[in-house]
Write a structure and sequence with these properties.
Elements (H helix, E strand, L loop, with lengths): L1 H9 L3 H12 L3 H6 L5 E2 L4 E4 L10 E4 L2 H9 L15 H11 L9 H13 L4 H7 L7 H6 L5 H15 L4
Antiparallel strand pairs: 1-2, 2-3
Helix pairs in contact: 2-5, 7-9
Length: 170
């Protein structure tokens, strides 16, 4: 991942920045493509994905790594709240990824799997924190009724560790 991420950071263009957000946030492609500026609080470093944009149909808070905040601030945009952050489609993302990794058949969804595998093998974060970062429901219906916190503080630590790993820092 660090080698790929270094190549991604060196690549210009909107699609590369969208893939950067995809990798470092652990969200789904559709959530990236539907993201509007009103969802991002760059001061608090949180992306609030509305329920209608998520697979689970519930709001999902995403702590943003420092490099993502800087990248989002640097994007050319009119910053209208209702404007899409990335005015591109899945095909554009797939094509950009294919250019970045020409000798493989990369999957946009594969970065969520990479994050999950890395977190399971290298992070000290609890399984529930990792699952919450991915926007997954945790436990059965009764457990979810009592455990409603977003684990945002713990997820911020996890996502900062993931950013450090992707950037190749130790």
């Amino acid at each position: 991942m660090p080698g790929f991420f270094a190549q991604l950071k060196a690549t210009e263009g909107t699609a590369a920045r969208a893939i950067e957000l995809l990798v470092l946030s652990g969200v789904r492609v559709g959530e990236i493509l539907k993201a509007t500026w009103s969802e991002f609080d760059l001061t608090e470093e949180v992306w609030t994905i509305p329920a209608e944009h998520t697979k689970a149909h519930r709001e999902h808070l995403v702590p943003l790594a420092k490099s993502l905040v800087a990248m989002l601030k640097a994007l050319p945009s009119n910053r209208e709240p209702s404007a899409l952050v990335f005015r591109i489609g899945r095909t554009t993302l797939r094509d950009a990824l294919a250019r970045l990794v020409p000798d493989a058949t990369p999957s946009l969804h594969g970065y969520r799997a990479s994050f999950k595998t890395w977190a399971s093998e290298n992070s000290t974060a609890a399984r529930e924190t990792v699952e919450a970062a991915l926007g997954h429901a945790i436990g059965d219906k009764a457990e979810r009724a009592y455990d409603r916190g977003p684990r945002l503080r713990k997820r911020r630590v996890l996502m900062d560790e993931w950013e450090t790993y992707c950037l190749g820092a130790r």
